[in-house]
Specification:
This protein has about 450 residues and is of the alpha/beta class. It is about 50% helix and about 10% strand. The chain has 4 domains: about 70 residues, lambda repressor-like DNA-binding domains (434 Repressor (Amino-terminal Domain)), CATH 1.10.260.40; about 170 residues, Rossmann fold (3-Layer(aba) Sandwich); about 80 residues; about 80 residues, Orthogonal Bundle (Arc Repressor Mutant, subunit A), CATH 1.10.10.10. The protein is globular and about 80 Å long.
Length: about 450
């Protein structure tokens, strides 16, 4: 909502912030895509009611903090509640690189999010499979389609850089927060923290309800792995905010089984016998090649390097985060050494050289999160080479079919196993992820609790 505006006051703020960043009017115009004439007229107080989009573009270009943005937008005529809400929404430019091979997943999740019947949707899967990236793509698509803004809450401690930057922006103090009852919530010395509002059981949901109101909003809970934000909290929001939709990402399924969940699969890799064009076009290989070229523009894809990229992609299970790490290794060791690491030390290759936390810890946590009988089954499955069916598990291990089905379904939701090509017999086949298998078969897996221990 726009109210009466003091153009001179807004112009003074615009000039102050521009001069602070040492930008000329022309430079600010280039960064914000607002014309030089419009910038000049705004600074001179010649515009009675600045357009909302213009104000947002200028605020983004000037890199205003949440508190400064609220003051800036209020001077432009936005009500305090509108400015507070706008300061917390994710910028549509905060989306990472384009997705490879995820068109179906984006369309499927987007269809659920816009459905009037699905108020809560979830993306589950193994750490590094691309849940956050997919959620960003869905948020961007929703904004492009319907103009719906996104409130993004990163609940992971190891948040990726773009998410961490957004989280920092969203947790800075905002003017007018006290009027919303938000000034008492603090984390890291900052107020107005969305995470605090969602995870504290002290009436904070009411404060967030007042902020969202009847706006159409997508609330993304990224990394709700341990159910930090409870279903009770989510349903309280759903009841009070009629146009709110919630999208959750988690490594393990949360909530009731009837909630919609997309178990995100790793990127596919062409079979070893596939031709050059099919191999190069497979999503995992295409992503790895793109990542390598980002770091090494001189990289050339010939028959030898294509075969190496394909084998690396297969041995790293097509996990996007693992492929990002492998691309970094290409800058410091030879392609032949890369292949050796992929065969003998996939966990090391799947860990960025500059990262202190290796993939083995992600695997350990994923395995440890399973009930003991399931962990025991995973250990036994790790000894099997090739693919297998539910029937083979039942016949070989002697576990009732219903128990096997529940375990396999859980493994799929958590991304510990994946479906593979049927091989022409129309049977549904699975295989355990290579990083899970090598972990369980190696010395680190020796400490995995067995059933009955």
């Amino acid at each position: 909502m726009v109210v009466a505006v003091n153009g001179e006051e807004f112009g003074q703020q615009l000039r102050k912030f521009r001069e602070r960043t040492r930008l000329t009017q022309t430079e600010l115009s280039g960064l914000s895509m607002v014309s030089v004439r419009a910038v000049r007229n705004l600074e001179q107080g010649q515009v009675a009611v600045p357009r909302r989009d213009t104000v947002r573009l200028l605020a983004d270009a000037l890199r205003l903090t949440a508190q400064e943005r609220v003051s800036f937008e209020r001077a432009a005529g936005c009500e305090a509640g509108d400015a507070m809400f706008d300061s917390l929404t994710m910028s549509p430019t905060a989306v990472a690189r384009p997705l490879h091979g995820r068109e179906w997943e984006v369309d499927t999740v987007l269809r659920r999010v816009v459905s009037e019947y699905e108020r809560i949707s979830a993306i589950t899967g193994f750490g590094g499979v691309g849940k956050t990236h997919l959620a960003r793509a869905v948020a961007q698509a929703l904004r492009s389609l319907n103009g719906v803004p996104t409130l993004w809450v990163s609940l992971r401690h190891e948040a990726s850089a773009p998410a961490a930057l957004f989280r920092q922006h969203a947790t800075e103090p905002a003017a007018g927060a006290g009027a919303l009852g938000m000034s008492g919530t603090r984390q890291g010395g900052r107020s107005g923290n969305l995470e605090a509002l969602l995870t504290r059981d002290d009436g904070s949901v009411d404060q967030l309800v007042r902020l969202i109101g009847d706006r159409p909003v997508l609330l993304v809970l990224d990394g709700n792995d341990a159910g930090q934000v409870t279903r009770r909290t989510l349903w309280a929001l759903i009841r009070e905010c009629p146009h709110l939709r919630i999208l959750e990402t988690a490594r393990t399924p949360q909530g009731a089984p009837e909630d919609y969940r997309l178990a995100l699969r790793p990127l596919s890799v062409a079979a070893a016998a596939a031709g050059r064009e099919e191999t190069a076009a497979s999503p995992a290989v295409a992503l790895l090649v793109e990542l390598i070229r980002d770091l090494q523009p001189e990289f050339r894809l010939d028959e030898a390097t294509l075969a190496i990229c394909a084998e690396v992609s297969r041995r790293l299970d097509g996990l996007p985060r693992a492929l990002e790490a492998a691309a970094s290794w290409f800058t410091i060791i030879s392609a032949e050494e890369i292949v050796g690491m992929a065969r003998d030390e996939p966990h090391l290759l799947a860990t960025h050289p500059g990262d202190r936390t290796d993939v083995a810890s992600t695997v350990r946590d994923a395995v440890a999160a399973q009930p003991r009988p399931y962990r025991d089954l995973l250990v036994r499955l790790s000894d099997w080479q090739g693919s297998w069916t539910v029937e083979k598990v039942v016949a070989s291990i002697g576990i009732p079919r219903a128990q096997v089905a529940r375990a396999i379904h859980t493994f799929l939701q958590c991304g510990l196993i994946m479906k593979v090509a049927s091989g022409g017999d129309n049977l549904v086949r699975f295989t355990i992820l290579n990083v899970i298998r090598t972990y369980l078969q190696g010395p680190r897996g020796a400490n995995v609790p067995q059933c009955g221990t």
